[in-house]
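Quick one - first record:
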Amino acid sequence: MMGAKWGMVIYNCISAAEILLALVCISRVVYLEPGMSGRRNKILFAVAFLVPTLFVQICPGLSKDIFSAFPVCFFAVYMVIVRREKRIRGIFLTVPVLGFLMGIVSVFYAVPYTLTGKYPSEGGWLYAVDALFWIAVLIIYWKRDETVHLLRLDEPYRRLGKWERNFLHAAGVFLFVIGAMLMAVTQTGISGTAARVITGFGSLASVFLEMSVVILIWQGNQKDYYQYMTTIGEHYLQAELRHFRAYQERETRVRKMRHDMRNHLLCLRELAENGKTEQIKEYLGELSGALRETEQTVYSGNEIADAIINEKEVLARAGGVRISLEGRLPEEITIKATDLCTIFANALDNALEAVKDLEEKWIDIRIRQQGRMLFITFRNPTEEKEVVPPGSTRKEDPENHGFGILNMTYAAKKYQGSVQRRIETAKGTRVYSTEILLLLPEKAREA
């Protein structure tokens, strides 16, 4: 008996966790709400949920209604925690999100009742539904990369429009009402045939509405995804065009220097024959300056990165900005040229934009490798006090700016990486730091 009691206690805890997890998944998939970041935070939240859930069951005298309300209450707390803004408003999402869950669950009861006139038995039927849920969870976790790519849950460019959100609110509340009616239709005194008809139409309405919502979210995600990819392509082509123009200008200067070198040598020889040492020094200084404008001054170990860095270094030098580089990229790196271009070009463009009006004008690039992990850090002084969200910008033309971090994040995620940004204070100066983490294939390891 004791073993059966504890078995039921454990089953009830799992069922409560199932409800909470389902609510979280619906908020992520349907409402595109943010998820909880960090494994430590997730574990702490899970413990904070399971401990009181277990306590309510083993403590005698406590009502079961308290236990039933636990998943919904903790979901409201979860929404307050994960939201970056309008946290209190997130509590009110509990009703429509619960409505979407009730719309799904009610169908499992409504269909058998409509067909047979009887609700399924609590034990075996509930166990089967629970088993299906956890099998689906395991499959999604096993195929999590494909699932995330399919749903685009982690992309910050996707936003629900006002009409989309209002539609979801109305749909969720409607499903909440319909689900409650379907589960309680036999207790209203309606005759068996009428109850079965109402239940059948109610379940069909729930299924139709749920499918409409899924199609809405799917089409919206696909539309924004392709718009985003088009934007990435446009910005990459612009970066390539700027690089090609800078390369052409450098090559033109080299050809001019080569063409005029004979004349320069003749002038120097004539000055030397006349003993004009000071003029020779001045002339050589001018030639050295002209040569420095045509040479590559920064070496990262990778031709693509070198081309981008040195292109930006010419622009930086014209604006009085110093660019320094510490570390080298692996020689046999397998990161695509487009991704390297995206990371270095956008990071340096953002840094140059940040320091152009400051007294301190410097940009530090640090490259470190630890095993398969490659860290690329860009640091520059800044006047900003906080980091703006990805996709946002403080520039006057927000529709055509703010894509740099999004592009870098998209490129990093191809290599199971991430982009972390923060503002630090070093020696009385606020420093903006952008750190890119990339996981390299095995063959890219250092010897």
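second record:
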Amino acid sequence: MQAAAEDVAKRINDRDPTLPPAALEKTDNTIVTTNTNKTPQANYDVAVFKNNNYRNWEWSAGYGQHGGDRYIPVELQRNFSKNAAISYEHHFGGNSSGWEVKYTRKTDKLFIIF
């Protein structure tokens, strides 16, 4: 069974088109292991687990101050992938309410333009 698990892992890494599309789906983490707890519904020697480690929605709240004006920012963020998101933030309190919309993109490098 261990040799079968290693063979399936190699086929996934090689993008073997004979595998089901779900096995080739791009995810954050793929685990291929032997299936020692077989059931009639899953009577296979090898199990493949696909994991995504990002959350689709996030929210936050905090405290803000601009000059002498204090407010509470509340933000809702929708993650489209682990690298891209859009968020809406609303400022409650103070002399006037405010808001902002942001597009967030993660990157491996920080670029500074002078």
